[in-house]
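Annex B. Sample input.
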Amino acid sequence: MKIAVLLVLALCLPALLGAQQQTRYSSSNKEAVKYFATAYQNLDEHLYDEAIQNSLKAISEDSKFIEARLLLADLYRMKRMYRPAVEQYAKVISLSPEFNRGVYLKAAEMEIHDASYTQAQQHLEKYLTYPDINPQTNTYAKKLLADAKFSIQSMTHPVPFKPINIGPEINTVNDEYLPVATADEGTLIFTRKINNNEDFYKSEMINGKWNTATYLSNQINTEKYNEGAQSISQDGKYLFFTGCNRPDGLGRCDIYIAQKRGNDWGKPVDLNPPVNTSGWESQPSINADGRTLYFVSNRKGGYGGYDIWKSRLGEKGWGEPENLGPNINTPYNELSPFIHPDDSTLYFSSDGWPGLGSKDLFVSRMDKDGKWQKPENLGYPINTSGDEGGLSLTAAGDYAFFSSDNLKGLGGYDIYKFELPVKLRPHLVTYVKGFVKDVKTKAPLEAAIEIIDLESNLPVYQDYSDDEQGDFLATLTSGKNYALNISKSGYLFYSENFSLKNYKIKSPFNIVALLSPIEIGNKVILKNIFFDTNKFDLEKESKAELAKLIEFLGVNSTTRIEISGHTDNTGNHQGNQTLSENRAKSVYQYLVSKGIAPTRLVYKGYGETQPIASNTTEEDRAKNRRTEFMIITK
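Annex B, continued. Sample output.
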């Protein structure tokens, strides 16, 4: 049970018991006291509505009956009827300011829920003047005071917020919530609750509009158990979700993964220990490369309540979960993590950090050392005195999805979209979407896809293109340069470069990678071999591509290749010829230094004599400045 609830009970019961045990009440009206006694008996029997009615009758007999008003306020508080509770607590204080110091704390808690922040601040400051307050209660009161002060400041500096209902194709009279979209915004998967059963539905974006949502899959959805709190991989091929009380589960709620097979999904698999335990694991969010899973758990070792954890996928499976630490987690509850595809911006919900009441949405950014910074509240009116959670973003980071039941939608919770204020956005991200095909038959191919950060020489994406359609999708964060390599046994590999330094345009990269079989005369342009202008020393960013070429030659051990250098037509012919030959020689020497037999290699410079594009623009001249290899013996 969370701390706040414990404090509610701790503060509520003494006042009520004290009122019951008094031989003298603040009222001498016998009818009023009789109704009050009946109301208290109703409370003891959990008949809360009857207790409210009898408290009202007691007050109607004597409007200055303090104990009856306090009981009524506490009943409204228990039923989350915030405005009536605020009114009754205020009346108690006006009738007798020193009747019970706990009234100030209870009143302030309700006032924060009611967005009456100035009154809450006043009552909390009054409460904290009393001596000998229980340390736990004192901490809670100071937390509420921080909320009240933050809220007053936040409401005087609102952020832009114009939510748009995404329409009847997705929203119905039922509850729809927890939306997540693929990187290309082509598919939206969300939870719909019908007759208290939660299932997944999906909608496809066609010609700029969402089509009517359909049931996701009988492989994933069940009639007996609830499925929810899902995360879709950027390419839409893997679904991580929460399943509760399933017979194959380890605890009350576990995290499962399902893989898309053609147009349907495979059978979900429980992630098992160390991710899942006998406790509660839920609300997964998978990062861009599919190897770091963020989730919520109440397992031991946290900071209190529900915490956000992460687990990294290694050669032996998911690793031991790591708590995100005190810059994210608090003694209260942190929920609904969403890791953006930039892998360095985390959005989540919390009732522990200063906010406008209940749960607010926050953003934390990872610093250059890989540590999460203290979170920033998304501000008013994105956050309100109610509960906010379940936020997800588009890959571009400019729009966010969320759900709400108080924006006059189509019924219950509806899904909305809004433009995220610039200061709250993640790093700019785009994506590469490709199709891998045989160059001759144009048949789709299943091939290994790897994208490498050229500065760190580390992979940021590793997967396979779909075996039926040959497609793949991967996100790319701005500010870096990337190498793409596509390889398949029996074929030459495919090389591409994506330069996102100073990248500002949000247009994605769409490619068709045509793989050529390993045949004499077939060539590969090595698009990630780099030289400085008019020089032939290999730059360090070339190592990833050269490693792929070495790997290719190792797998195809009988193959001999020609390495060729090419230039544009800038400068004189002889200079270009010499430069191209020296660059080809540099690649040759590097391969030999890494153990490739010189007898398997030939190098040659062609200068400007074999252009593949015109030399009329800088873009075309860049295409002509290239390094290739060609099969000369299989």
